[in-house]
Amino acid sequence: MLDQNKNLSDISEVMTFSPTELSRQGFVSALRKHIMVDLASEMRRDYESNVKPAYAAKTGSEPSTARDVKKAMETRTLYRMWSSLRYNAQEMVWASVQNGVERALTEMIDLAKDAAVMNPAGGSLRLDPQLEIPRYVSALDVHLMPGCFHTEHTQDDVAQGAVQVAGGDVFRGGFRHRKGNPGGVGESIAHYLKLKHPEFDPRRILDLGCNTGKNLFPYLDVFPNAEAYGVDVGAPLLRYGHAVASYEGHPVHFSQQNAEHLDFEDNTFDIVTSSFFLHELPVKSTQAIFGEAYRVLKPGGLMVHMELPPNSEVDPYYAFYLDWDAGSNNNEPFYAEFRNQDVLGLCSDAGFQSEKCLKFLIPNYSSFGHDKFEAFVNGDMPVPQHGNGASWFIFGSWK
Ligand SMILES: C[S@@+](CC[C@H](N)C(=O)[O-])C[C@H]1O[C@@H](n2cnc3c(N)ncnc32)[C@H](O)[C@@H]1O
After folding, report:
1. pLDDT band at 1 (very low <50, low <70, confident <90, very high)
2. Is 207 inside a domain boundary?
């Protein structure tokens, strides 16, 4: 029987790792940094000094598309080594946390159940066991994460949420500026809005594909009067996220829904947001989701997404580099298709007026600190180049 007066414990704290597991995780983080920074720079040098000139000598012009660059790069030893290491490091991220998750699972499930009953922060958890998981989630292990976002191994399972959170720490761990701050995107967008539009006072914020909510929580720090809603198809993520939110005091309403068909009323939200979400969906799903975003936004509200920059925004080499995740490398089959879209066209097709659409890069807030971030918002500081989370590509529209 649940004691309603007992204090809720931190679900992430019950997951502990042995010294050997911690050194394995440290190794994977360092390996990822080596791959994503050192080897990636070497690869770009190889392209500029050798591959591009050879291609131009042979064809009479430089590579002009990601596909041209790929054709020229895929026989290079350095690229093949980089690609192979990157694939293996991605698998190692999840493997490095799985034992700890399994050991703590029973205790974490109990904590999540307590959180769902107690709701100490005033949030809620609404699950739909009948929800049909879309095939673009159920048919493959996105990001090579075994079980993907939705699998339930046992009753009231939270394992996929725990693997996402602990694995995410390992994934980002080599990057000092992102370490320990999983919600950098939400934090950066929220501060941007507060500084750029001080009159905008959002009262209801909806995050689509919220996962465990890490990019939703920071909105509440910046807009403490707002109510936060998070939607995802993965029940274990939502249970885990709700337990974290309950412990940390974030009043978040999590619900298990397909963002293509939301059950919220028209004109409900001031902000509809997402991060790292749309590139994982077929474009027709994105179109349906933007239709829903338009419907549930209040007039004067803002749809704002963080995504990978489209091909039209980057040079052919960087387009090739970004597209590594597409297809079988990282099991993101719609990634390249999404990056070929005219993102503002997608917004206006959903009913948003083209003159109210926007797209821009913003720096990662915590990497630069408030003063520099404000200087950027005021136009006094240039935005760093996109890559490894130094800045984020943002687009959307006011309604
Ligand atoms: C890469 S994760 C993004 C997580 C999170 N937004 C973040 O910033 O880290 C994509 C999320 O979208 C969810 N998802 C995929 N298709 C969905 C859909 N149609 N409706 C709601 N959520 C969906 C997945 O379960 C997953 O948690």
Report:
1. very low
2. yes
